[in-house]
Specification:
Layout: H1 10-19, H2 21-24, H3 29-34, E1 36-42, E2 45-50, H4 65-70, H5 75-84, E3 88-99, E4 107-112, H6 115-128, E5 130-141, E6 146-158
Antiparallel strand pairs: 1-2, 2-4, 3-6, 4-5, 5-6
Length: 161
């Protein structure tokens, strides 16, 4: 990871400072276009949701798969970055999504990393200087039925600053 400038993008920094983290997503093209909403529950938990609207509907009338994945993409990274702080580098390394059934109506995903898990990550990185951390989340419809499952792998290491 040498030669990579690792910092929050100035546009995101401006949006976050001006409007707050939740509202900044209203200006982010993929989220605005897909009507994805973000709620910060606490420093360890984020919920994203998306209603079925014209701009996120696929050819057969259910949620577009790219929008379903998009509503899950950045949140584990954000939670780790905020909790670990600037002494750590966190990158999304890989992801996969399994579509279980068509999503229609409001769908929701919850992202949570416990304080204990964050301490385990700190300990592992202190021992090995870096690690791959994995997490899974489910996208649920209004009745609580699983629409899709997302698997994420994040790379975490100490910052060389």
């Amino acid at each position: 990871m040498t030669g990579i400038d690792y910092q929050v993008n100035p546009l995101w920094q401006f949006l976050r400072e001006t409007y707050g983290f939740e509202k900044a997503f209203a200006f982010f093209g993929p989220y605005a276009g897909a009507s994805i909403r973000v709620e910060i529950v606490d420093s360890n938990t984020i919920v994203s949701s998306m209603d079925l609207v014209m701009t996120n509907t696929n050819y057969v009338g259910s949620h577009f798969g790219g929008s379903l994945y998009s509503m899950c993409d950045p949140f584990y990274m954000f939670i780790l970055m905020e909790n670990l702080g600037p002494d750590y580098i966190v990158w999304d390394k890989s992801a996969s999504i399994d579509f279980i059934r068509p999503g229609r109506g409001l769908v929701r995903a919850r992202f949570h990393i416990s304080k204990e898990e964050i301490e385990k990550i700190r300990d592992q990185v202190a021992k090995n200087r870096k690690m791959d951390w994995t997490a899974d989340c489910e996208i649920l419809d209004e009745s609580g039925t699983v629409v899709a499952r997302v698997h994420k792998v994040l790379y975490v290491r100490k910052n060389k600053k």
